[in-house]
Amino acid sequence: MSVIGPVAAEPATPLPLTRFLPSSFIDRPKLLRIAETEADRYRKAKPFPHTFIDNVFPEELLDAVIADLPAGDQGWTRYNNANERKSVFSDVNAFGPAAETMAYALSSLAFINFLEQLTGVDGIVADPYLHAAGYMRVEPGGFLDLHYDFTMHKHLPLERRINVLVYLNRDWRHEWGGQLELHSNDKLTDPHHQEIAIEPLFNRMVIFDTPNALHGHRRPVACPPGRARLLFSCFYFIVPPVLGYRSRIENVEFPTRRSFSAMATRLANRLLPPIVFDLLRPGRKRVQ
User: Fold this and answer.
1) Helices (H), strands (E): how many in the chain?
2) What is the value of pTM for the model shown?
3) Domain contains 34
4) 173 shares a domain with 70
């Protein structure tokens, strides 16, 4: 006689380790093709350099990112004032594996190379702190008024230069609001004022220059309860030019094999003004 009892659940199939590598999010050849075709349009865009690109990342990985984020308030920093109503999750150590992988993917050299070729900005630095960045959630009634972003990093001597936003909103409807607004610096009532509105659609990546970039989403989000306007934001910086830094650049020196040319270069570094070194380096890439 057989006894029928509870059926034991089969052990979950472990996800392949390669699924949660930064390279699983980044298709480098695809990004470089996008940079090549979009660079001119990006740099000439109005009211300031920007673009948006759809379907850059694997959808199943973005779905895994969404599932990784806590549904409640734990881990989220809430902002609720006259200028904004939103929540931000910036602690990489508290991210789930997919959410963490995405953060590192957008800080990878492959992605930074893409940004440099697209924007024309050299020497881009990703932010390991995710200061004021990370995952952003705007629930019904939430908004972000028009604003200019902060210019310098809180912890590092870096100048903010580029914003990247990746939207994580499945089946988002226009009537729910939350459109990203990009504005020129004219008065909003000026007939020459320019405005671009971008829908926060799933797997849409928005990139824009931050200096003098007036932006926000004034229209309060009106999605159903249980839904929210969700995105991942990553901010990129450059090192502000330091007077004379090129004259202080020195090659690796091996004291036991010190050559006359190395000694002459070292002496020149101490005696000649920095402008001489700049003139002696034709073809160097200009930091914008």
Assistant:
1) 7, 12
2) 0.81
3) yes
4) yes
Could you list the pLDDT tens digit for every one of the 288 residues in the chain? Answer: 434 434 444 454 555 545 678 888 999 999 999 999 999 999 999 999 999 999 999 999 999 999 999 888 888 999 999 999 999 999 988 999 999 999 999 999 999 999 999 999 999 999 999 999 999 999 999 999 999 999 999 888 999 999 999 999 999 999 999 999 999 998 888 988 999 999 999 999 999 999 999 999 999 999 999 999 999 999 999 998 777 666 666 667 666 666 666 667 777 776 777 666 666 655 444 444
Q: How distant, in Å, are the alpha carbons of 79, 104, 200, 205 from that of 55? A: 30, 19, 13, 8
Q: The domain containing residue 129 runs over which residues?
A: 20-238
In angstroms, the first-to-last Cα distance of the chain is 81
Per DSSP, 152 falls in state: B
Assign residue 173 a region: left if phi > 0, alpha if psi is -120 to 50, beta otherwise? beta
What domain count does the chain have?
2
What are the helix (H) ranges across 72-214? 97-105, 109-119
Q: Quick one: 115 and 224 in the same domain?
A: yes
Q: How far apart are CA 153 and CA 132, in angstroms?
A: 10
CA Rg, the chain, in Å? 24
Regarding whether 230 and 255 lie in a shared domain, the answer is: no
Q: Bridge partners of 287?
A: none
> Is residue 230 a contact partner of residue 134, using CB atoms and an 8 Å limit?
no
Q: How far apart are CA 157 and CA 237, in angstroms?
A: 10
Residue 220 structure tokens = 């309060």
- Cα dihedral sign for 243, 114, 39, 178? negative
68: domain CATH number is 2.60.120.620
Phi, psi values for residue 179, rounded to 5°:
-65, 135
For 171, other C-beta atoms within 10 Å of its C-beta total: 8
Within 28-126, residue ranges assigned H as helices are 28-44, 59-68, 97-105, 109-119
